[in-house]
Amino acid sequence: MLRTAGRRGAALVGAAALVATGLATGLAGACAGTDLAPQSTVATFNPANALADPKSHIGPSTAVVAEAAIEPIAADPRPALPAQVTDAQGTAVTVTDVSRILAIDIYGTSSRIVFSLGLGGNVVGRDTSSAFPEIKDRPRVTPSGNTLSAEAILELAPSVIITDTSLGPWDVLLQMREAGIPLVVVDSHRSLESAADLINQVAAALGLAAEGEALAQRTTRLVEEAKRAIAQAVPAEDSAKLRMAFLYLRGNAGVYYLFGQGSGTDSLITALGGIDVATEVGWRGMQPVTDEGLVAMSPDLILVMTSGLASVGGVEGLLEKLPAVAATPAGLNRRIVDMDDAQMLSFGPNSPDVLTALAAAIYTPDGGQP
Fold first, then answer.
1. The domains spanning 10-68+229-363 and 83-221 adopt the same CATH topology
2. Could you give the CA distance from residue 123 to residue 115 in angstroms, rounded to a whole number?
3. Closest CA to 69 of 122, 15, 115
4. Are 307 and 25 in contact (CB under 8 A)?
5. Closest to 223 (Cα-Cα) out of 113, 349, 130
């Protein structure tokens, strides 16, 4: 039976749709032409060099995950087929052939899981967000942003498709099912807590239950190790901890949302040792930013996705387009941390690296201080 964390409410589906629109704009440079450009901080994090007072730092930074080859959990996995699963939508699916795998979603999480399970050689295509070195030479089935192309998928003749509800049009996927291609829909919800379950869902669909459990355990262990390292850099007193907010920005469309409880960003902020100001006031899912609300939340640091920051003209553009940000401690100190859209909320086997990169950008943005 395919394990599933269950589908979440309409607010999270809406959030996925917003992020899909944003990812379609591409990953432009974050702050070209601004007065204060972010300092890129590669994922080398030493808590011994952490800022003595993380609230005192002035200036933005960009979290950069260090390039590292994917380490498959098994060198030569042997899938147990046929694999019979009940997917996240309650559909019974039988997979008899994993020789031509298409694993696609808005963050590229599913494809990374397949490579981490050791079946990367069987992957025939990719989505826009799957751009890691091992997959970047595969043809895209999302030729326009994150919009699926039925023709592109059929040309690849996949023997199984693994996806979620974050890509569309949904009719394209239904067409694949009608064409006789096994379609396994995994849970679209993303968080640090659900990463292991997502790994097991993908693995079960490929007949690699044991490998999936091993990969889930490895990911969980490395996430916990990253969290313990981060904890060494976090001030002991709550009053000294960074108050953080995650803003979703699409300046070209005038879209500004604050993500809160249940969106996945809450688990990220907690793991980073911050206080999620949205959760603190009971903000659930994603909702449009209000000036009064953001000022009252008083974040010390704001997390954003790289292309979102670029869409508003960088840090200075953000302060101009959202004056409420300028009135917060984060705005006054230009304490904006951005990260690649396809990595920040992927919540999969690369979660430990994402946490490490963000911790470096937050607590040791310029080497820190002893």
1. yes
2. 8
3. 115
4. yes
5. 349
- The superfamily in CATH containing domain 10-68+229-363 is Nitrogenase molybdenum iron protein domain (3.40.50.1980)
The 10s digit of each residue's pLDDT in 68-92 is: 889 999 999 999 999 999 999 999 9
Domain over 83-221 is classified CATH 1.10.10.350: no
The set of residues, in sequence order, having a beta carbon less than 8 Å from that of 69 and lying 6+ positions away, is 133, 134
Three-state DSSP class for residue 258: strand
CA–CA distance, 139 with 126 (Å, rounded to integer):
6
**CA dist list (Å): 279 to 97, 123, 272, 339, 346:** 44, 39, 15, 21, 20
Q: What is the pLDDT of residues 35-55, one digit of tens each?
A: 345 555 555 799 999 999 999
pLDDT one-digit tens code per residue, 148-196: 999 999 999 999 999 999 999 999 999 999 999 999 999 999 899 999 9
SS3 assignment, position 57: coil
Q: Is 50 helix (H, G, I), strand (E, B) or coil?
A: coil
Which residue in this structure is represented by tokens 């601004």? 34
Amino acid at 296: A
Tokens in use for 235? 């001030």
Output the DSSP codes for 106-140: TTSHHHHHHHHHT-GGGB--B-TT--STTTTTSPB
**Cα–Cα dist 79/195, whole Å:** 21
Q: Give the separation between CA 223 and CA 14, rounded to whole angstroms.
A: 28
Which sequence spans correspond to the domains of the chain?
A: 10-68+229-363, 83-221
